[in-house]
Specification:
The chain has about 425 residues and is α/β, with parallel strands linked by helices. The chain folds into three domains: about 1-60, no CATH class; about 70-275, Rossmann fold (3-Layer(aba) Sandwich), CATH 3.40.50.1820; about 285-415, no CATH class. About 30% of the residues lie in helices and about 30% in strands. The protein contains 13 helices and 21 strands. It has helices at about 5-15, 15-30, 35-45, 50-60, 115-120, 120-125, 145-165, 180-190, 205-210, 235, 240-245, 265-275, 390-400; strands at about 1-5, 60-65, 70-80, 80-90, 100-110, 130-135, 165-175, 195-200, 220-225, 250-255, 285-290, 300, 300-305, 315-320, 325-330, 335-345, 345-350, 355-360, 370-375, 380-385, 410-415. The strands form five sheets. The protein has an eight-stranded mixed beta sheet with strand order 3-4-6-5-7-8-9-10, sandwiched between helices. It has a five-stranded mixed beta sheet with strand order 11-16-17-19-20, with no helix packed on it. A four-stranded antiparallel beta sheet has the order 12-13-18-21, with no helix packed on it. α1 packs across α2 (about 15-30), α2 (about 15-30) runs antiparallel to α3 and α2 (about 15-30) packs across α4. About 40% of the residues are buried.
Length: about 425
């Protein structure tokens, strides 16, 4: 194994407590036992190391030193209370070096497709210097907006962070047709996972219909559509980019004289766009719009935990292309939202139809050595100094199955 933090490795030789702390951190993320994690967190705190040192250990996973090969991999995840097995096809660039961080494209196939075939759509234009991971959706579910698709995508990202040296600030969701629809959805609902979204022959119009498009505040979109596309009429395709442009968001919309499909001729433009777009880890302003609490209710440093009473829910029945219902759930009749902004050491929060939420803070957002003022809907709810917590630092990473966003304080609020 190769620890990608040589400075701390050198210190560990002089400080046995540091070496032990590193071992405890890795053990914490390997186990799924709640009791074991609690015990490891307590022992880690007992090492009495500076909090900044523990943060570095948590935020720097050990990555495999062995070479990585292209091929098919399996992942396991929960969906409808059952453990499912999914597959994705991984392309590894020639000369892959585990000491180097690589950008990643999560490549999302269209209806009836597979990751094994779809990975080729991205290989020629990006395969020399990008990792490419193409999930294969089970035929009965597809890569639509179901929880199955989200769980599969997150499982793939988690697996890649375990086996490869991924630049987590340069992870991009890209797809064609139905896969492009899903890329829009991933970017909208899981914006803090990606640096940008690329859509070939897709549409974000439904996100506008449900007023979700405000979620793209900190995420770029590169959309390509054809004027001769009969599957996605150009009038429909224009709605998503137009709504984002109206908000002043970062979007490129390429309208071409082509039909429905992947536009390989745009590879150079997409490469240039992605090269300029990295994920914003801790943006000072966040907007989150949801209609249910679940996978999609978190964004950067806010999490919506409960919505106001929903008297007249919108019943959703997701069907596959055979007409079978694959998932049913309710959406709130109203768009429920949180808008939060950090100015100096003041956090201002505005909510709509949200009854509970959690803020996550760190030293990147505010100065935790000073009092932090939290104002919710015009009322000051806190004006005090918050203590950094090792438990919070570990729990947030475990919950997200990723060690790329670090938060040491959590504040629960009831607007």
């Amino acid at each position: 194994m190769l620890a990608v933090l040589p400075a701390l490795s050198a210190q560990a030789q002089q400080n046995p407590g540091l070496e032990r702390a590193g071992s405890l951190v890795e053990s914490y993320f390997r186990t799924t036992s709640v009791n074991k994690r609690e015990s490891l967190a307590k022992e880690l705190a007992a090492q009495k190391l500076p909090f900044a040192t523990i943060e570095k250990l948590v935020g720097t996973p050990v990555v495999p030193a062995a070479r990585l090969s292209s091929g098919n991999r399996q992942v396991r995840f929960k969906f409808l209370d059952k453990v499912r097995t999914g597959e994705y096809t991984l392309w590894v660039p020639p000369g892959y070096d585990p000491r180097t961080r690589y950008p990643l494209i999560l490549a999302l196939h269209g209806t009836g497709g597979s990751g094994r075939n779809y990975v080729l759509n991205w290989k020629d234009g990006f395969g020399q210097d990008y990792l490419i991971a193409a999930p294969s959706a089970a035929p009965q579910y597809g890569l639509g907006g179901s929880t199955y698709a989200y769980r599969l995508a997150l499982a793939v990202l988690a697996d890649l962070q375990r086996i490869a040296h991924v630049d987590t600030d340069r992870v991009y969701a890209g797809g064609t047709s139905m896969g492009a629809h899903f890329a829009y959805q991933l970017g909208c609902h899981l914006a803090d996972r990606f640096g940008a979204v690329v859509s070939h022959a897709g549409s974000g119009h439904r996100l506008v219909t449900y007023k979700y498009h405000s979620n793209f505040l900190n995420l770029g979109v590169y959309a390509i559509n054809g004027r001769m596309d009969r599957a996605i009429p150009i009038q429909l395709a224009r709605k998503g980019p137009a709504a984002l442009q109206k908000l002043g968001y970062d979007v490129v919309f390429r309208e071409l004289a082509v039909g429905h499909g992947h536009c390989y001729g745009e590879d150079a433009g997409v490469r240039d766009y992605l090269a300029k777009h990295r994920r914003s880890r801790y943006p000072k302003r966040v907007v989150k719009v949801v209609r249910r609490v679940g996978l999609e209710s978190r964004a950067y440093w806010i999490r919506i935990d409960k919505l106001s009473r929903n008297k007249y829910p919108i019943g959703m029945r997701l069907k596959n292309r055979s007409g079978q219902v694959v998932e049913e759930f309710d959406l709130h009749r109203e768009a429920c939202s949180v808008e939060a902004q950090v100015t100096g050491n003041t956090v201002t929060v505005k909510t709509r139809h949200v009854s509970r939420l959690t803020l996550y803070l760190n030293d990147e957002l505010v100065d935790l050595n000073k009092s932090v003022r939290i104002v919710v809907n015009g009322r000051t709810r806190h004006n005090k100094r918050f203590d950094r917590s090792i438990e919070t630092l570990l729990e947030v990473c475990a919950e997200r199955e990723s060690r790329d966003l670090l938060f040491s304080v959590s504040v629960r609020l009831r607007p």
